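HOLO CASE FILE
Compound: pyridoxal-5'-phosphate
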Amino acid sequence: MNTGLSGVPSFEQLARVPLYVPGKPIQEVQRELGLNRIVKLASNENPWGPTEAVKARVASVIAGSEFESLGLYPVSDGFYLRKRIAERKGLPVEQVVLGNGSTEILEMIAKAAFLDGGSAVIPKHSFAMYGIATQTAGGRVIESRASATELDVEDILRSVAPDTRLVYLAHPNNPTGIRIEGGTLRHLVRHLREDIVLVVDQAYAEYEEPGEYPDAATLLGERPNLLVLHTFSKIHALAGLRIGYGLGSPELLSLLERVRSPFNTNHLAQAAAEVAVQDVAFEAFCRMKNTEARAAFTLEAAKHRCKLTGTSGNFVLLETAYLAPELFKELLQRGVIVRPMQGYGLPNHLRVTLGKPEEMQTFWNAVGPLLDGGC
Ligand SMILES: Cc1ncc(COP(=O)(O)O)c(C=O)c1O
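Model generated. Tokens follow.
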């Protein structure tokens, strides 16, 4: 570290926190490689949206109105959007908090929980931001056991330390695509020490069939220390606007309110999400397209004798005999951006977002010859 900054203990600690590595943006690949056509299957974005209704609402905000002028601050707590979300979820508005992406809520809860230090239990192969949010807020990470194919909830319970304040759990998980069954979720909600906040991150929940998905929000009445997260970045196709929400007890959310930055979500995002959250038909359409894309990918993967992990989310985790960073580089040269998963402890796995049929065809055309007859 630069000498002027070294010697500051918190900076030295911060320098050891891993950096979040985002999916490579299309413009960057275009600039570096001079390619015309690029297919990005790297960040689990939704290729089917946003809808015309959402775009029209955003355009109306840009055109300007009495309350939503871009020169005015937005509604600080996003009351009107929270009300829409509360209606959709059948909860009081006091049980909804907004974030600049659900990532911001991951950071808010970490800031609240680790004000006086402590630890978080995070299963192996979890979304990178859980560890980063914990460490940048001064918390310590305890990694519980998990494989690429199975989440070990008993090990989460066993890994809890006296100073544990948080448990993060994605349901379904990114990047493994594993979701947990209702009984297992209830077991965790009921047996985790009462003073620990259980964060159940349901960023990909809307891709599950509603009747078959064990929604952690149904357990909010059982545990005041439960925070359920959702995002508008995935099925609602608003990743560029940065907006997500959390559901929790009024007591827990009143604490988050103390660490929430004022005006953390903007006019455009609030307005777009108000329309998106009511559009059940668009969600159903994207869910169907995603199911079709997964089925087609599974067929194609079998032809190449590739192993797939997980069943959930708008992505697949593909295991190969090759080193994922090498395959990633080769695919990049061919204009296809995927995500190598070595940073998640999966050196032979690529995560591929399920895109439109023509995008998936481009992926297979590019990767097929590289696999040399098989995964
Ligand atoms: C499991 C999981 N949680 C949260 C997020 C963050 O979403 P947002 O765009 O709302 O910050 C992601 C993004 O990929 C994710 O995979």
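CASE NOTES: The chain has two domains: 9-36+281-370, 52-278. Residues 44, 101-103, 127, 170, 174, 201, 203, 231, 233, 239, 244 surround pyridoxal-5'-phosphate (CB under 6 Å).
CLOSED: yes
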